[in-house]
Amino acid sequence: MSDLREAALASKAWPFEEARRVAKRYEKTPPEKGYVLFETGYGPSGLPHIGTFGEVARTTMIRRAFEVISDIPTKLICFSDDLDGMRKVPGNVPNPGTLTDYLQLPLTSVPDPFEEFESFGHHNNAMLRRFLDTFGFEYEFISATDFYASGRFDAVLLRCAERYDEIMAIMLKSLREERRQTYSIFLPVHPETGRVLYVPMKEVNAAEGTITFDDEDGREWTLPVTGGKVKLQWKPDFGARWAALGVDFEMYGKDHSTNTPIYDGICRALGERPPEHFTYELFLDENGQKISKSSGNGVSIDEWLTYASTESLSYFMYQKPKTAKRMYFDVIPKAVDEYHQQLRAYADQDLKARLNNPVWHIHGGDVPASTLIVPFAMLLNLASVSGAQDKEQLWGFIRRYAPEASPASHPDLDAAAGFAVRYFNDFVKPTRVFRAPTDQEREALQVLRAELAAYDGRVEDEALQSIVYSVGRDRFDPMRGWFTALYEVLLGASQGPRFGGFIALYGVDETVALIDKALAGELA
């Protein structure tokens, strides 16, 4: 056994723990289908949100971990339930009123309000695939519309008809009394209107593989359950899809967790073994509300990538998946800097520590070196005091601080500089508030200004930090009050960088000039 596999089998990193659970399924016999199947599901009722990406990112991390501990081939499927009827019009699309007439039509039969694709479902599927391709995920995409219509689901749909009473019994136990009276696991697609109908069954004929029902106008119809004429309700569809594809692993949000016995029971009723599950906590917006596709709250994938790298988003997804996360724009800088801290730590870690490091899972073991020699938070502060409108202005300071650095040799730094200017102008600048110093703070700032004006040593973080610290140590207890004053008076922020490092980056003379402005009342 290789050292890597041996370490992976003992690792406490959550992707390896999940991978070991999947591997136990085939301890004795390999899968008949020849591979282990990981699946993620997507309901394209609205534009893909960041939680959808999170499922694929985290599942990919588990898949990579599995490939270290097992020689069994793997596949990842992203399944879109785009045959689902549109229950309500999303609020975050152009001209939403134009979609009202298409309620209950399958999403792949609803016109695209963006006028880019043949349907709203096709549009949302394309957005999802573009997002996933941006991150380089390896996956197979399956559309429910194609899956039903092509016949790939037919065998399981016929089995659903044969075992209708057993599956209905599983479902009815979870429903309120009034819902039970009209519920059926089958949803016919009306032959004339194309709408997905929620109607009771008059007959389910297992021998013929048909269902008989009355539509909303009281007309009786008989349809085959195969060929895309009928779809399953979403809960039965979950379990039946597992059975049809032979899914070995699927994760979903905490809001699905109470349905796990239903999904599993239906899969077993269809004669197949349910997959391993992983339930993650939900993503919340700035108000603590669940992120929703239809309302478009929270941060979108495109928005995150406007202000930070793809890797920083993957890092955010790795962290504590079983803990609810508030996901708004203000989490981005911290995620960027922590990701690069982990990159720098990785180089000196032993194998055990590396396998517990998030960056191993983000990069599948092929971990690059960080070239972000200036923290993102520091770049934000530099953008603030310099009034930079583009990253080249920041590079003027960076080159003086680190003459060996260039956009070509430090691509992480170059990208972060551009992100920092954009983030500062969109989020920091509109909300920053400078204040005037107190008498005690004014005296301390005057001393700091004099110390810096007289300084003729090397422009180094530690030396400058020592000056800042000594000025505050003699005047503030606790010292936190001194640093808070520096941030609020000079930067217009409640928190900030290690100030000696900031001076080294911004410049000693420039910092003296900044203090002069604050003392003259030009900032507040």
UniProtKB/TrEMBL annotation:
Keywords: Aminoacyl-tRNA synthetase, ATP-binding, Cytoplasm, Ligase, Nucleotide-binding, Protein biosynthesis. HAMAP family: Lys_tRNA_synth_class1. GO terms for molecular function: lysine-tRNA ligase activity. The gene is lysS. It is found in: Cytoplasm. It catalyses: tRNA(Lys) + L-lysine + ATP = L-lysyl-tRNA(Lys) + AMP + diphosphate. PANTHER family: LYSINE--TRNA LIGASE. Gene3D superfamilies: 1.10.10.350, HUPs (3.40.50.620). Its main location: cytoplasm. A motif ('HIGH' region) lies at residues 44-52. InterPro entries: aa-tRNA-synth_I_codon-bd_sub2, aa-tRNA-synth_I_CS, aa_tRNA-synth_I_cd-bd_sf, Lys-tRNA-ligase, Rossmann-like_a/b/a_fold. Pfam families: tRNA-synt_1f (PF01921). Its EC number is 6.1.1.6. This is Lysine--tRNA ligase. Belongs to the class-I aminoacyl-tRNA synthetase family. A motif ('KMSKS' region) lies at residues 290-294. ATP binds at residue 293. The lineage of its organism: Bacteria, Pseudomonadati, Pseudomonadota, Alphaproteobacteria, Rhodobacterales.
